[in-house]
TrEMBL record:
Summary of the function given for this chain in its UniProt record: Allosteric enzyme that catalyzes the rate-limiting step in glycogen catabolism, the phosphorolytic cleavage of glycogen to produce glucose-1-phosphate, and plays a central role in maintaining cellular and organismal glucose homeostasis.
InterPro entries: Glycg_phsphrylas, Glyco_trans_35
Any Pfam family: Phosphorylase
Name of this protein: Alpha-1,4 glucan phosphorylase
Species per Swiss-Prot/TrEMBL record: Penicillium atrosanguineum
Annotated TM spans: none
GO biological process, one term: glycogen catabolic process
Amino acid sequence: AWRKYSVSEFGNKEEFEKELVRHIETTLARSMYNCDEHAAYSGTALAFRDRLIIEWNKTQQRQTFTDQKRVYYLSLEFLMGRALDNAMLNVGMKDAARDGLHDLGFRVEDVVEQEHDAALGNGGLGRLAACFLDSMATLNYPAWGYGLRYRYGIFKQEIVNGYQMEVPDYWLDNNPWEFPRHEITVDIQFYGRVKNYQDETGKIAHSWEDGEIVQAVAYDVPIPGYGTKTTNNLRLWSSKASSGEFDFQKFNAGDYESAVADQQTAETISAVLYPNDNLERGKELRLKQQYFWCAASLFDIVRRFKKTRRAWNEFPDQVAIQLNDTHPTLAIVELQRILLDKEGLEWDEAWNIVTKTFGYTNHTVLPEALEKWSVPLMQNLLPRHLQIIYDINLLFLQSVEKRFPQDRELLSRVSIIEESHPKMVRMAYIAIIGSHKVNGVAELHSDLLKTTLFKDFVKIYGPDRFTNVTNGVTPRRWLHQANPLLSALIAEKLGGHEFLTDLTLLDKLEAFVDDKDFRDEWAHIKTMNKLRLAKFIKRTTGHAVDPNSLFDVQVKRIHEYKRQQLNIFGVIHRYLSIKAMSAEEKKKVVPRVSIFGGKAAPGYWMAKTIIHLINKVADVVNKDPDVGNLLKVIFIEDYNVSKAEIICPASDISEHISTAGTEGSGTSNMKFVMNGGLIIGTCDGANIEITREIGESNIFLFGNLAEDVEELRHRHFYGSFKLDPQLEKVFTAIKGNMFGDAADFSALTASIEEHGDYYLVSDDFNSYITTHGMVDEAFKNKEAWLAKSITSVARMGFFSTDRVINEYADSIWNVEPLVVKD
Ligand code: 26W
């Protein structure tokens, strides 16, 4: 039914072919006689791009014309993955393209694979932003994303002799999905000094003078909604040397070489995505990136608002800005600066506008991830902003002092400025003070924010400023696109694809849990998806894995808190057990494939050590004839969005095993369950809500609870530490050089045995192993396993980002969709 809403279509495959050939022969200046798969990809992309542009232009005109409130999603990361398949499915013309490509001798699946992932993000936070864009467009919200156009996305990972190597990801050549807007530029200032002067009314005003100017150039990426007329915009800023007076001076002074060097310096601002996930390093270039992007975006938003000629107090009725973590916190300070210094508003009036405009989403409680910038660094780079930060802090502390007199401890705890050497600016505190809502990303996480990290602010502002919006994923990419077979089966049972835009309709599947034919098809599809992954593994690693084995998957950034080390120790334990078995005992073993994937931050040695251990264990296990097919260990190189689309539908069980209280939400847990996989997990992040929705009997939970973590850590340090006996056997094997030189892994074992086991690997090991035993037993009962799989999918309706976006729209942004009537 939604087809009637879709964009001007290729009526049929012939029309698609005509467009394809036209683009290949003219736009690409290539001959059809030597059209390879890559040319077929480019031609198809251009044909679909044409369809997007038309609706994109109309959407922008419509949004300007109706002039209702817009959402601006500020994120330093957008982990988009590939665009073509998404465009085909959202525009709704994939069948015409498939048939047309077939006529020319291509398979659409192969053509789609030619596309380079747009990998402008590290992990969960960046992918969440991409899912949000999809849902905002699908739900017809007038919404823009703002980010940076990195020349290099997240590095490509190569595994060489079991070690991670990083290779730059230069991805921009021939990218058909971006539109340079050379006419849309903003001059961004750095360094310089603040001049105070008296304005006409005699009041002290401030102007920021001198310094350097770097130009921000807009690049726009169309974001099509699924089956709607809305195509929203993602605007990415690229840095360029300013062509202004400042540079001409240097050129004219004959200092050509250093003037060119300055140009290159300007261009490095948007050159590279910082590959740290959950670690703040305080690098000046990162602060430059943040300000560059915030200032360009704010200028753009304010420029758009000013065209409406409304009064400033209407700004928050027209504009909602959401901060994706603290990375864009300077936007708060920048808006206050614009309103004060450029527009001449009074402080209170300006600040009132600012706080009504912003919302802040926190994604992590890990202390090492909380952004702090040194005062001297900020003083040098952004002198006027530092002044404003001090003013915000002064007024805030005065108001706290009034309400809680004599509580000096409280004042120093909540001060934006940490009194360390050097002094540091706490960005999260600016984000809280400058926003009207602060949210966490799953219930436990949001509760922890209120009871630990931001406790004092709850006391000051009351509980209403703090809220929870549990994450989700877009079912278009993570069910329909990643798992076309399952999506088709569900559509057949439910009488159409409406579930893709109302995921709660999945609950109708429960009626078919006992339907024999349906169950068979369900099982068959899982096998097909496992085969697809097995082929991929064969092609990329050379290892043959048996699709009848239990596929056990952990794919995500490598981090001690996510505990891939717990998983690989568990694998070693399994390996040792199998080796100790008689032939008779081996017959009862459920064959397993343990699949790992994920990148370590380049400077995170412990994470790299974990990758090394996984690969060494794989080397030993995979060629051990005692084990054969009973256990295989696979490390999938360069895990990314497009690989996740193959991996998620193929898992029987996936691992979400972070130390309780450390994972904000997790979102791959949702992707796996939505594709009929079960979970082994801790009571952490959104695992808790997943359990509530699908039922405790459909998930394998283990381990200590968040409320006990503090006590256990304390005991490790002040009591005596006793290594779990089964883990001790694993360590003995490692130390006996079973997986190569034990010295390579001594830091890892020592972090547990000697340095307090901060992530409670030993405490949770027994429970983890026991629970894996239960997984094996459950997997033997194919029928009961299938019922769990189907029931879980049926109950996953809550985890669509459509629900998430509607919650943000209602409770934080106060925006309405802009629905078009025919
Ligand atoms: C400043 C360094 C830095 C870089 C990235 C700090 C923090 C980050 C991100 C917040 C890390 C991240 O991706 N967090 C993840 O966000 C997801 C979306 O909400 C959650 O599902 C994950 O639990 C959380 O780890």
